[in-house]
């Protein structure tokens, strides 16, 4: 990659470009593993770590400026935010429009690709009580469909995303290559395999309502009543920190660590039998994958979660505990006890994971780095659907045996 830069005056330098709405630390970490590409972005997030930008070609630009700079660049492959990410649609549409003009003037074409994990309906009428909002969402749906039909290569990270896109936006363009690569991790480099771990349960992530912390706090006394030897570690930060602290004071079996460093999180997960992410349903948000789920799996933890995550089907099929009743502490307590009693070894959990990280495998397909057929049939546990660029049909179906926000 090029040396780090962040210039508003220069076009992207690399033939591959990623167009992001916002940039955060996780994106920078991932960028060092993905195919080399310039990153054009509008804003940075609160957790942006500038030290990780070294070696990356970063181009900050608003929507109009981004369209101008990308059209001036030598871009050959452009990754855009997924069409159901409505906040990014205006910028995406402007850039695609500029590239269309460039193609007419110069004959230079661009392959447009996208990685999709959206599994919620952003256009739902139930979340738009006002006429103005409903009209805006109709406009967003039009833009989303236009972007969807412009995509040349698509990789779905979950079956839920694939089904959601088909339901909301219909079929992709006939020329498009559509692949499903489950958003699963590989084994973490520091993860221990081995046998059954002690009955340790971990919650890691934001201390917020939508992650189910309140339900977990109500459920934990029921778990301890059934399994007195069980312990719970709460790792994270957020608005419900005081409730997490109150639980740790009231329950000797509960420990709390606020905003621990990454090595500490990995260490705790490596000693845990169960990872809990009790995602709650919401009119405006749905758990696409769940980074804590991915990290728990990479350390050999049995996952306890709800059907809100896009990985729900895969988790159910591979011995984890998934339920549709997200509101009940009793249901959560029973799910945790079930996972503890199953006593799956870390080795068994890790054995279900792919040999290559799902997000990296997806990027291989988007940018043609995998050396495998882009269209013709199943590759390493993935499946393709739709039609190829030469009009031949590809195999339809979904991948459940794995190849990751």
The radius of gyration computed from the alpha-carbon positions, rounded to a whole number of angstroms, is 22 Å
Assembly category: single chain
Beta percentage is 15-25%
Low-pLDDT stretches are 372-405
By secondary-structure content and strand pairing, the structural class works out as alpha/beta
Q: How is the biggest beta sheet arranged?
A: 9 strands, mixed
Please list the strands of the largest sheet in the order they lie side by side: 1-4-3-2-5-6-7-8-15
Distance between the termini: 23 Å
H-E order: EEHEEHEHEHEHEEHEHEHEHEHEHHHE
Shape: elongated
Number of strands: 15
- Provide the helix percentage: 25-40%
- Determine the number of helices (DSSP H or I, runs of at least 4 residues): 13
Mean pLDDT: 87
Short description:
The chain is α/β, with parallel strands linked by helices and 405 residues long. Helix content is 35%, strand content 18%. Strand 7 (153-156), helix 5 (159-169) and strand 8 (177-180) form a beta-alpha-beta unit.
Describe the protein.
The radius of gyration is 22 Å and the shape is elongated. A nine-stranded mixed β-sheet has the order 1-4-3-2-5-6-7-8-15, sandwiched between helices. The protein starts with a strand and ends in a 19-residue tail after the last strand. Helix 2 (63-72) runs parallel beside helix 3 (89-106). The chain is built from 13 helices and 15 strands. Helix 3 links the parallel strand 5 and strand 6 (111-116). Mean pLDDT is 87; it is low at 372-405. 35% of the residues lie in helices and 18% in strands. The protein has 405 residues and is of the alpha/beta class.
């Amino acid at each position: 990659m090029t040396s780090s830069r962040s210039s508003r005056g220069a076009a992207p330098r690399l033939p591959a470009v990623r167009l992001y709405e916002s940039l955060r630390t996780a994106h920078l970490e991932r960028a060092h593993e993905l195919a080399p590409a310039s990153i054009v972005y509008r804003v940075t997030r609160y957790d942006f770590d500038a030290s990780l930008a070294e070696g990356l070609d970063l181009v900050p630009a608003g929507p109009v400026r981004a369209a101008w700079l990308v059209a001036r660049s030598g871009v050959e492959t452009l990754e855009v935010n997924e069409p159901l990410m409505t906040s990014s649609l205006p910028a995406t549409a402007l850039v695609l429009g500029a590239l269309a003009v460039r193609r007419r003037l110069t004959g230079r074409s661009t392959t447009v690709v996208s990685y999709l994990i959206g599994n919620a309906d952003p256009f739902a009428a139930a979340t738009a009580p006002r006429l103005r909002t409903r009209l805006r969402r109709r406009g967003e749906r039009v833009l989303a469909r236009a972007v969807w039909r412009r995509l040349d290569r698509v990789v779905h990270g979950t079956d839920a995303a694939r089904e959601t896109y088909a339901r909301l936006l219909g079929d992709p363009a006939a020329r498009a290559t559509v692949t499903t690569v489950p958003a699963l991790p590989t084994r973490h480099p520091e993860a221990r395999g081995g046998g059954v771990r002690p009955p340790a349960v971990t919650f890691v992530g934001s201390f917020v309502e939508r992650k189910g912390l309140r339900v977990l706090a109500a459920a934990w006394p029921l778990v301890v009543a059934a399994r007195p030897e069980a312990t719970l570690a709460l790792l994270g930060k957020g608005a419900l920190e005081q409730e997490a602290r109150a639980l740790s004071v009231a329950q000797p079996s509960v420990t709390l660590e606020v905003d621990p460093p990454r090595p500490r999180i990995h260490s705790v997960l490596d000693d845990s039998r169960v990872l809990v992410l009790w995602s709650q349903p919401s009119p405006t948000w749905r758990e696409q994958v769940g980074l804590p789920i991915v990290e728990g799996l990479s350390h050999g933890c049995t996952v306890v979660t709800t059907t809100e995550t896009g990985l729900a089907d895969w988790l159910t099929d591979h011995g984890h505990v998934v339920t549709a009743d997200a509101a009940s502490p009793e249901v959560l307590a029973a799910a945790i006890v079930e996972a503890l009693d199953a006593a799956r070894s870390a080795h068994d959990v890790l054995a279900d994971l792919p040999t290559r990280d799902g997000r990296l495998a997806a990027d291989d397909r988007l940018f043609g780095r995998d050396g495998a057929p882009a269209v013709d049939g199943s590759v390493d546990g993935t499946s393709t659907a739709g039609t190829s660029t030469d009009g031949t049909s590809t195999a339809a179906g979904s991948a459940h045996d794995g190849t990751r926000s």
